[in-house]
Amino acid sequence: MTKKYLSKIIMLICLVSVFGAINPVRALVTQPETQTTVGNLSPVFFYTDTPANAIPSDTGSHNGSGLAGTDGMPVNVGQPVTFTAYAVDANSDAYYLAVCKADDITQAAPPTCGAPGAWTVTVTPQANNTQESITYTAQGGDAESNAWWAFVCDASACFPADALGDQGNALGRISFTDVPADGESVRIENATHDYEFDAPGGVGCGGGALEVCVNCTSCQDGADAATALAAAEVANGTADTNAYARGSFVYVYSNNPGTAGNAYTLTETCDAYCTVTGGGTLEDGDTENASPFYVNHKPQITGVTINDSGSASIEPGEAVYFRTTVTDADSNGGADTASVYVCATTSYTPGSGCAANQRICYSANQALGTITCNSGDASGNLSSTYNPIPTSHGQKTAYVFAEDNHQFQADYSSGSSTRNYDVTDVPPVLTTYNSTDPISPPTLTPNVCTGTVTWTVELYDNNGDTDVQSVDGVVFDTGTKTNTCHGTQYDKDCYDDTSGGCAITLGGADQNLVATCSASDICFNANDTATWQVQAEAVDDDARTTDFANSGGGQQIDFPAVLALDVATGATLAYGTVEIGGTNPTAVETAVANVGNTVLDILLDGYVMCTSWSPPYTNCVGTVLDEEQQKWSTSSSFDWDTQGNVLVNVVPGASVGNAAAGCNNADIAVRGDDHSSTSTNESAYWKIRIPASQAAGSYTGANVFESTAGGGGCS
What we know:
By secondary structure, this protein is mainly β. 3% of the residues lie in helices and 35% in strands.
């Protein structure tokens, strides 16, 4: 009955609804509010490589290999360290990658690393299920080895949890020498991390204490870290089978997948490197094998000394020694070594050295400290052209660089790569005098200074022939003077070049030159000896002189003897008017000068006096006054009647004799260094007696003064 009633009502309602004749009855509708909270899950690291690509990828790009990954391949200060991660967020949130200096993270957007702070943190959040790479630029204040902890975070949570940060190389690997027999046990124990992991292909692994991916096709949770993993399947086959453990999961695969066989139990029994049953070894997957990044610091050049092989000044042609002191505080993996490059220009590239044909020298991979190389060794390519002969003196410049064994260029504790040093000024060197001809003696002329000695000097200057500014010459008698007489003329024994310096002829663009010297004012009284020499000295543009050097082989020059005299009082011996039978009351003086270079005696003779000559002194055509009426004496007060020497008649070629023969033993000395001095003159005094029968008239004649070698020439 009830059903029937309800059916009618329903029909009625429908009719009313259709025809609108009856007011409708509305049903009460309620709309309950639904509520739920979707829990936020942190993003997790996702390892993108497949087993066939070997070890799964890690957080840091350096990560135990490559730049910054090992102490043998550190990153240089100023270069980037790259950290790379791939993260998956179950809520599809974007994520931040944070690399901290300590195992301390606070989630936020972006997250914050605890003290002492972050190495680097993502600035703009990275899209879910993509790869993120961030960098840190190594600083000079960084340690050599720098620990890091990596986290991926969304705004609410981080993975791993605080104090469980990823350290990169916390990746264990189990390698079997042979494929284990079916059913053989290998066990991993003491897993300390509890990572979530999604296998490729969407296979999910739970959050158990230990998780295993077998050939990347299935996952198996372990009840806890101490439970045997009986379900960890590997394939039978002949190839090696490997298992990789990261944190608290194990990644197992076979290089030759085949039919699934019996299970293996993986067991870790110790830290670090462990023996594993089944013939394998396990590298610990815990933090003991974490991967710090390594920073290489600049070496320092603390000093450079440049000199010759004996630490003295550098002369042209000598090898230039560069002694460079290099320090480096880095010691990870052993102390760094250093290479030093010395370049002719600033063009230098670490790892390559100096630009082409600009390397003076280098010394590679040397222990730190003072490292030496020199321009003459085989390491340079300028050895034949660097500091050759000739090289001008003065400041030179080289450029000194150093780098460590990681090709990191050194800084300078002071200064720069520019290093100045001096090539010293060396004196010119005299080599040869008159190399082709002997030196000719001068021609000496009585009573004048016109003698000339000319000589050539061959010399060199290793600073270049143009370095020689002047050459001075001197000719002197070695029996009485030394070359110290240069600069002061001594008529008897020392003469300088008289042209204001010897004339220089350059020998081309080298060190050789020739100078021609001439002393052209040599006087008549220069010593008549065979002990004369020529010498010279050269002066360069730094006023550096070479000592006077003897002419080649001590060549001697024989100066000629000059016997010459001069009646210094004039050409006329005038007695004046003398009466018959009388003499001139005052003796007439004739001062005789030695105008040669030999001690002299005087030969005195004469002609008759005559009132008329045709020609003079040859044929008297007038009245004769005999020559013996004249007497001479060395005393001005001699008495004609009782004293004096009778003037003898001219006898051509007469031999030297005594005074009676007309030889005045005067020993007239050679004039001294003042060739014009009269102090050595000797005088003869003359008187005449007019015979009683002599006809009056004006008489003329000639007395002859001849020189002969003194010192015993007259007896």
